[in-house]
Design goal:
The protein has 380 residues and is α/β, with parallel strands linked by helices. The protein folds into 2 domains: 3-184 and 296-377, Zn peptidases (Aminopeptidase, 3-Layer(aba) Sandwich), CATH 3.40.630; 186-293, 2-Layer Sandwich (Alpha-Beta Plaits). 35% of the residues lie in helices and 24% in strands. The chain contains 11 helices and 16 strands. It has helices at 3-9, 11-22, 31-48, 91-94, 109-128, 154-162, 211-223, 263-275, 300-315, 331-336, 363-377, and strands spanning 53-57, 65-70, 75-82, 98-100, 103-105, 136-143, 166-169, 180-184, 186-195, 233-241, 251-260, 284-293, 322-325, 341-342, 349-350, 358-360. The longest helix has 20 residues, at 109-128. It is elongated, with a radius of gyration of 24 Å. Its cofactor is Zn(2+).
Length: 380
């Protein structure tokens, strides 16, 4: 039997497992449920893939991680996925998995529980049909905290990346055309805290120093850093401060999101943040925070992997395209290690992080076949 036919024959099993996984809530910060989901994936990998081995990696704060491995060749290929979602407990009970026409819906179905199973079934097809490449081992690292910045898994991901020749990230592709992601912006989160001096706004306003006025100046300075040509985005998304309209505000806070295309630009923005000073006499200013994910820049290694992927796609009738995005993933950490990778290899769909989230059912066998051929044929 061919790999393609094997994948088609197992689509009903894929959908059954997808339904079961989507109907298990796994919020990033709920360790109890995340551990339950991690164990479920571990069981599925071992049951599906002959010779597959899973190591459960304990995590004190968030859900446990999985290190799934198949093969013992000298060249390691890293697959990356996450089972945590942005949705709270009870979400799957409110809107459980269902299929309508060509779309499958449910919390986390697109981002990215379908991608994890895509990886499982691609590996299963290769092993069952005797097509798994003998020169490599595949490590599939699955984490539980990607949606909150991979706080506890970042270092392990980077450690695995450094042992790998290349990596494939099974996150959502770029829509509407399903492009692979060959670059991602780096991102940082910061908070500015301004302290002023309170006073009565009618009796002695001259004795006060308005933290809100100071913050207004700083916000303008921050937004002036936006440069759409270079891809630098600075957004003050949350502000708060003051106690009442008749009080000169003695405090104000702002939360800032920063996105940049290159490490050089990220360093430049960080230096600017360090140099911020208050403009109002008597006000103090404190900036906290820093880089969450470094940029995933399109390197020669990524370009070479993409060109291989494009040719592999042509063989099975797929027109593989590439694009960049402002969103981050665990691919950013892998790229920072100098390891070539392709991102966005998941099942096509839309509306991530939304109650409208879905995948296209007809895309499941196509993308699983493409992934299987990448694992088998990429020159690493």
């Amino acid at each position: 039997m061919s790999i393609e036919q094997h994948i088609k024959d197992h689509q009903n099993l894929y959908l059954k497992m997808l339904e079961e996984s989507v109907n298990m809530d796994s919020p990033s910060k709920n360790k109890h449920n995340s551990d339950r989901v991690a164990q479920w994936y571990a069981n599925q990998f071992e049951n599906l893939i002959a010779g597959g081995a899973v190591k459960m990696i304990k995590n004190k704060e968030y859900g446990d991680f999985l290190r799934c491995q198949i093969g013992d060749g000298d060249k390691q290929l890293l697959l990356i996925g996450h089972f945590d979602t942005v949705f709270p407990m009870g979400e799957s009970e409110k809107r459980p998995f269902y299929i309508k026409e060509d779309k499958a819906f449910g919390p986390g179905v697109y981002d990215m529980k379908s991608g994890i199973l895509e990886g499982f079934f691609a590996l299963k097809a290769l092993v069952d049909e005797g097509e798994f490449p003998s020169d490599r081992s595949v490590v599939f690292f699955i984490n539980s905290d990607e949606e909150i910045g991979s706080r506890s898994s970042k270092q392990m991901i980077m450690d695995e990346a450094r042992k790998s020749e290349a990596a494939l990230v099974l996150e959502c592709p770029m829509e509407p055309d399903g492009s692979l992601k060959t670059s991602r912006k780096g991102c940082g989160r910061y908070k500015i805290i301004v302290e002023g001096v309170s006073a009565h706004s009618g009796v002695n306003p001259q004795d006060g120093v308005s933290a809100i006025e100071e913050m207004a100046v700083q916000i303008q300075r921050l937004h002036a850093l936006n440069n759409y040509e270079t891809g630098t985005n600075v957004n003050v998304g949350v502000i708060k401060g003051g106690l009442g309209p008749n009080i000169i505000a003695n405090f104000a806070e702002a939360e800032i999101d920063v996105r940049v295309q290159s490490s050089e630009e990220l360093n430049r923005i960080e230096e600017i943040f360090k140099e911020f000073k208050p403009v109002s006499d008597g006000a103090t200013l404190q900036i906290t925070g820093g880089v969450l994910r470094p940029p995933m820049e399109r390197t020669d290694g990524i370009e070479e992997l993409f060109e291989q992927a494009k040719k592999i796609g042509e063989v099975i009738g797929m027109d593989i395209k590439e694009s960049g995005t402002g969103g981050g993933s665990d691919g950013n950490f892998i790229a920072s290690c100098g390891v070539p990778l392709l991102d966005g290899l998941g099942i096509r769909g839309g509306h991530a992080h939304s109650p409208k989230e879905f995948i296209y059912v007809h895309e499941i066998p196509k993308k699983t076949l493409f992934l299987a051929n990448l694992i088998k044929s990429l020159k690493i």
